[in-house]
């Protein structure tokens, strides 16, 4: 516990630097750091904490002016040469999706990342990782104010997910597959909201089929994953298909929030009674109690002014079958 003098000092500090809507969070953060002074941690631990806070600050400052625009995270090999058809595909995809009003986020390095920044131009971010042997930022992002550099992979990876609304993966190495597995894991466990995860390849390639065959032949067979987990991603062999998947995903569906034990799906346009009845018929297996129904903004949403103009449906989701939840979003968009 902090003594009264420290608590009063924190309160005085917050009154001078805080805003009405962030004073409680600021007090929690400063109090937590102060409590660490009594913990036996070494200089390396303090360095980790200090650097992490600074990297979060840089991230929030970089992304916050663009929070009103949806973004697509692009992953793929840093070793893909410019002459490779995959490079050209990634460049064209990035250019096409930004023309549709999205921004893109890449890892700021070479290969597919460079293609993404080249195609995205000023509508692209680069989140670079400092490594001993690579990687300097590519020429298309290195002078941009949308370049953010990180010491820690975990903060960089968090920002990739937190600040994006779709994930597009081109063939790559360990890093690319790490991002693919993490993206799938976060949605499968409900730690990330539903989103399109698209596995890109040229027609006739089999990179992703080989990877997915391990899911079907081993993990599904041995029941390490569920059949509905296969709904979490899609293999795409053209940019047009991928862009259509992303645009369609957010056509009627806008966002999801949990309020208590209710899953609240916010919508760009209202559903009819027949639409809602169809959802209840198709997805009764993931409703714990009651039914899927139209809803007004919940008090928690009103308090935080969270998408109050959007239409809503709500239900008690079992928080297990997230692949089915993605399928529900797709059905909503099909109406």
Annotation keywords:
335 residues; alpha/beta; Rossmann fold; 3 domains; seven-stranded parallel beta sheet; 11 strands; 45% helix; globular
Strand order of the largest sheet: 4-3-2-1-5-6-7
Give the CATH class of the largest domain. Alpha Beta
Q: For the CA atoms, what is the radius of gyration?
A: 22 Å
Give the terminus-to-terminus CA distance: 55 Å
- Given as residue ranges, the uncertain stretches (5+ residues, pLDDT < 50) are none
**Strand tally:** 11
Number of helices: 12
β-strand amount: 5-15%
Give the rounded overall mean pLDDT: 95
Shape: globular
Give the helix/strand class: alpha/beta
Count of the separate structural domains = 3
**Helix/strand order:** HHHEHEHEEHEHEHEHEEHEHEH
In CATH, the architecture of the largest domain is: 3-Layer(aba) Sandwich
Task: Give the % helix.
Answer: 40-55%
> Mind describing the biggest β-sheet?
7 strands, parallel
CATH topology name of the largest domain, in short, is Rossmann fold
